[in-house]
Amino acid sequence: MDLQPKAPPSLPEAAHEWRSPVAALTRFRGVTPDSGLPLVSASPQQAEERWAVPVADYWLMVAPELGCELVEWSTPCRIPNTPGWMRGVTNVRGTLVPIFDLHPLLAEAGKKADGKPMLFVLGEGEQAGALVVNGLPYRQRLDSRLAPTTPPELPEPLAARVKSAYRHNGEWLLDCDLTGALRDLGTLAAAV
Question: Collapsing DSSP states into helix, strand and coil, what is residue 83?
Fold first, then answer.
């Protein structure tokens, strides 16, 4: 019995070369780099999609490339002497994230939020902020079927951050700079 290890079969020299990801994926017969692989990260159609996030009586729309996630509600740690819409902070993957509840600012007087609240977290690390939402977000395509209209009266600082407004199936869709609005709300909460 021979206990000497056998040398692996020799490979052609080209097999030892590292290929770029596109070259590796297109090395098979019939596939070329321009035959269906996305070489550009975003198409114009993708740029015209937004996350529609349900908050009170509105759907706030945010760009999907912002980095966002939906997390289950966890009771926040309250921060003393802050406005009612500043619910406190919670731990999201080891980072303390401020929680903003726009429902008191945006809902009709006396109207209660429906269902179990969830947190829609925007950004990462120290730049993250969470928004209390009352439903699941969905992808909304901005196309010719949605005609911009005059937005409803909104409280500051959200009013200053609305880029455009749409009416769709009886609902308000507000395309806004939500991260800027959360930053403005954080500044207001710190000033109290």
Answer: coil
- Residue 57's pLDDT is 84
**Residues 98 and 106 sit within 8 Å (Cβ to Cβ):** no
Are 131 and 100 contacting, i.e. CB atoms less than 8 angstroms apart? yes
Residue 95, CB half-sphere, CA atoms under 13 Å: how many? Answer: 14
- Residue 15, amino acid: A
ω before 157 within 30° of 0 (cis)?
yes
- Going along the chain from its start, the domains and CATH numbers come out as 44-191 (2.40.50.180)
CB hemisphere CA count around 129 (13 angstroms): 19
Question: Taking all residues of the chain, what is their mean pLDDT, rounded to a whole number?
Answer: 78
Asked whether the whole model's pTM tops 0.85, one would answer no
